[in-house]
UniProtKB/TrEMBL annotation:
Belongs to the Cu-Zn superoxide dismutase family. Residues 1-22 form the signal peptide. The keyword Zinc applies. It catalyses: 2 superoxide + 2 H(+) = H2O2 + O2. Its cofactor is Zn(2+); Cu cation. This is Superoxide dismutase [Cu-Zn]. InterPro entries: SOD-like_Cu/Zn_dom_sf, SOD_Cu/Zn_/chaperone, SOD_Cu/Zn_BS, SOD_Cu_Zn_dom. Coiled coil: none annotated. Keywords: Copper, Metal-binding, Oxidoreductase, Signal, Zinc. Destroys radicals which are normally produced within the cells and which are toxic to biological systems. May play a role in favoring mycobacterial survival in phagocytes.
Length: 198
């Protein structure tokens, strides 16, 4: 990768294209960084890791987990990089209230938040893994926002897909906030790291 960028930089300088050179420099900076999180449950047990990287015009998110209850789990980036298991949601009693609402660059509802991700499937042996790409945010925007936290929920995420026959007036405010994913069972603060390939 480094070789490719160096070649691009030489071409840009050779053509005297200052703007292109600056764009390449900016891209090198972004490619130099990644986000990482160690995901812990309420007892502080390590239940997974998360990696966030830039990949062309997308952001790639990779998760591996272990020691979690089998089934689908709501899986989102939340706005605040604070994972305090003793911080309880006054409305529901859920821990990790400190991580705030779903990370969002605008004023979207669920499941249109910038940090909304496909649910995590945990296998019968408690392990899960997934790689997902999203164009809803770039790594720099996440860090500008204050880094955030990855949260794994107890229940599946209904993505606010509530058919009219169940709710004639559509999903309620709670569903449009969280997708009814239930309590927060694990949390990982996303921190900035150098990729070391620049
Ligand atoms: Cu969430």
């Amino acid at each position: 990768m480094a070789g490719k960028y160096h070649l691009l930089a030489v071409v840009a300088l050779g053509a005297g294209a200052t703007a292109l050179g600056a764009a390449v420099a900016e891209r090198m900076t972004a490619a130099d960084q990644r986000g990482e999180a160690v995901i812990k449950d309420v007892d502080g047990k390590n239940v997974g890791t998360l990696r966030i990287e830039e990949q062309d015009d997308r952001t790639r998110i990779t998760v591996t987990s272990q020691g979690l209850p089998p089934g689908y789990h709501g899986f989102h980036i939340h706005a605040k990089g604070v994972c305090d298991p003793k911080s309880k949601d006054p409305a529901t009693g859920s821990p990790f209230f400190s991580a705030g609402p779903h990370f969002d660059l605008d004023a979207h509802s669920h499941p249109e938040h910038s940090g909304d991700l496909p649910p995590l499937l945990v296998n019968g042996d408690g392990t899960g893994s997934a790689t997902v790409t999203t164009d809803r945010f770039r790594l720099a925007q996440l860090f500008d926002h204050g880094s955030g936290a990855i949260i794994i929920h107890a229940a599946p995420d209904n993505q606010a897909n509530v058919p009219k026959r169940y709710a004639p007036s559509g999903p309620d405010a709670e569903t449009l906030k969280t997708g009814d994913s239930g309590a927060r069972i694990a949390c990982g603060v996303i921190t900035k790291h150098k990729t070391g390939r620049g």
